[in-house]
Design a protein that fits this description.
The complex is a heterodimer of chains A (292) and B (283). Chain A has 292 residues and is an all-alpha fold. Chain A is built from 13 helices and 2 strands, in the order H-E-E-H-H-H-H-H-H-H-H-H-H-H-H. Chain A has a two-stranded antiparallel sheet. Chain B has 15 helices and no strands. The longest helix of chain B is centred in the first third of the chain and has 32 residues. The chains are: A mainly alpha (292), B mainly alpha (283).
Chain lengths: 292, 283
């Protein structure tokens, strides 16, 4: 065997676990999913080709779909920037050189490692309209709290507040970004007499933009697929106010055994993710500063 | 931004303390509820009678814990979850590191295009492959078993492969080269020279795979139909929907589910923090 051929085969042998897994669990399912999106299919009987019918009814007829898309976009548009804002503020505060900083850091970080299902249990409890902590505290201040998860006006906001509780995760990423900013930039700015506010807006935030961009992209992709919390806490209600895209897709697939329709929905979601992320990458040049 | 003057330090402290309250209160409230008697839960927090003393359970009802754990067989769920975690951590770390070595250190023809595909798969939402994957597993007769949750781990996780290959690329070529001249084959170089150097990166992968499996809800939701095979995450959700009003027990069960992760955090703080800082966090 020539050394060249040998190298080819060794390389392929090393990556073979992934390559086989990719073909069986991702590659073929990917193609199959395109095919299924043009069929009516209940997984028991063989799929029946229906052409563009699934896509047609998605776009023109399905009010639930339209509502789910709106709910999901609204959630992404509000919760992602809100999470970035709070994460950056926390990281800036934690980057200060004050006593007990590691205690504070632990306090803010711990909620983000609480498993999702436990978080939903905690928030279902503290947001309980009658005997929950939040409305108890509000009542102390003379305010009658809403029914939160039970109120169509507040349910989506409740999930956003709950998401903010886990902001410690991205806070850690911002904190690492802050530590990477070279000190000489600040030293030079201080010599030039730049005020703290000026240093924040001219050095710290611009230097942090790559990390902010990363969290923005990941946040958008994640929130378009938001599922578990809504499935457990509201199951789409009340009045469809938290019927997220992925939740409706899941119901279509597993509750109504409408696999063709669900596949079409998955493809619309995939396209939406591709379009939104490329749009975000397109804005990159204007506000994200790489290197120095 | 290095804060030096006293006034701004004071301001930082006040801001951090104020923000700590909403961060810590849900956890404190969870702990306190888990130790309360039913009647304290239903009277203590109600409207005007709510007060901060209601934070302290009196009497302390430790019995909530055994009660919660016997209402639903959480010990069985714990065993199931630990089993899944152990096998999938082993599978994911082993295969991801092998694959990463191939991409990072062996210059074969399809290396670059295949690595490109690997990166692209990370952007593919799970919803696209969810249904056909179900078909594959069902036709193999794996529905209702743990195999759909375990076998994919042995194909390596794209994110870990990426992470590890970035790490392997930073290692100097000389050591491997001299071993190669001594007649060591590529797998021995990987297993005996490169892998031991990668321990911190492997620990990061192991931790995140563990957390991912511990937390996984959608997987068991789709593939597990037998109560004796439930995981903690899935079992807790089932408990929630079956015993909705039993707040003390629900909080006790949630703590049992959360505590191992918190303990793990205190033992492996560095791996957690650096892992999130380099990988971007939870899966």
């Amino acid at each position: 065997m020539s050394p060249k051929l040998r190298r080819e085969l060794t390389g392929l042998a090393f990556i073979s676990p992934w390559l086989i897994g990719f073909i069986v669990f991702t590659g073929l399912p990917f193609l199959r999913s395109i095919q299924l999106s043009f069929t009516r299919y209940d997984i028991v009987r063989p799929p029946k080709f229906v052409g563009l019918a699934n896509y047609q009814s998605l776009i023109f007829d399905d009010q639930v779909f339209r509502n789910a898309a709106v709910v999901t976009l609204k959630f992404a548009i509000i919760s992602v920037p809100l999470g970035i804002f709070c994460g950056v503020i926390l990281a800036l505060l934690l980057n200060a050189n004050v006593r007990g900083i590691s205690v504070y850091r632990t306090v803010f970080f711990l909620p983000s490692i609480v498993p999702t299902v436990a978080t939903t249990a905690i928030f279902s409890w503290i947001l309980n309209p009658q005997i929950g902590l939040v409305n108890g505290l509000l009542a102390k201040c003379g305010v009658t709290g809403p029914a939160w998860l039970g109120d169509p006006k507040w349910a989506l906001w409740s999930l956003m507040f709950m998401g903010l509780w886990g902001v410690g995760n991205s806070m850690v990423i911002y904190l690492a970004g802050l530590k990477d900013i070279p000190n000489y930039l600040y030293e030079a700015a201080i010599v030039d007499g730049a005020s703290p506010a000026k240093r924040l807006f001219k050095i710290t935030l611009p230097m942090l933009t790559p990390v902010i961009f990363f969290n923005l992209v990941m946040g958008v992709i994640g929130s378009l697929q938001y599922f578990t919390q809504a499935y457990i806490m509201t199951n789409g209600g009340p009045e469809d106010s938290t019927r997220f895209y992925a939740l409706y897709l899941f119901d279509r697939a597993w509750r109504y055994a409408d696999m063709g329709y669900a596949s079409a929905m998955a493809w619309v979601l995939f396209l939406a993710i591709v379009v939104l992320t490329s749009a975000l990458f397109g804005t990159q040049k204007r506000w994200v500063h790489y290197g120095s | 931004m290095v804060t030096t003057n006293k006034g701004s330090k004071l301001f930082t402290h006040i801001a951090l303390i104020c923000l700590s309250i909403p961060a810590a209160l849900p956890l404190i409230w969870m702990l306190s509820t888990s130790l309360k008697a039913e009647n304290q839960i239903y009277t203590g927090a109600n409207g005007a009678s709510f007060s901060l003393t209601s934070l302290i359970p009196s009497p302390m009802v430790w019995a909530n814990y055994p009660k919660a754990l016997s209402t639903v067989p959480f010990d069985q769920y714990l065993k199931n979850t630990l089993f899944l975690c152990a096998v999938s951590v082993f599978g994911a770390v082993l295969s991801s590191s092998i694959v990463a070595y191939g991409f990072a250190r062996i210059n074969f023809k399809l290396n670059r295009p295949l690595f490109g595909i690997l990166i692209a798969t990370m952007a593919l939402p799970g919803q696209v492959t969810m249904i056909p994957q179900f078909e594959v597993f069902r036709s193999l007769g794996w529905y209702g078993t743990y195999l759909p949750l375990l076998v994919p781990a042995f194909a390596g996780a794209p994110f870990f492969i990426f992470l590890l290959s970035q790490f392997f690329k930073t290692l100097p070529e000389e050591v491997a080269e001299s071993a190669r001249l001594d007649g060591a084959n590529e797998f021995r170089i990987f297993a005996q020279i490169v892998l031991p150097l990668a321990k911190p990166a492997l620990a990061t992968c192991a931790l995140f795979q563990f957390l991912g499996t511990w937390n996984d809800f959608l997987g068991p939701l789709i593939y597990i139909n037998d109560t004796s095979k439930y995981t903690l995450a899935y079992g807790l959700q089932q408990f929630m929907s079956a015993y909705g009003g039993q707040w003390a027990q629900l909080m006790a069960a949630s703590i049992v589910f959360t505590l191992p992760i918190i303990v793990l955090f205190f033992f492996a703080q560095k791996t957690f923090i650096q892992g999130i800082a380099t990988t971007g966090g939870k899966n």
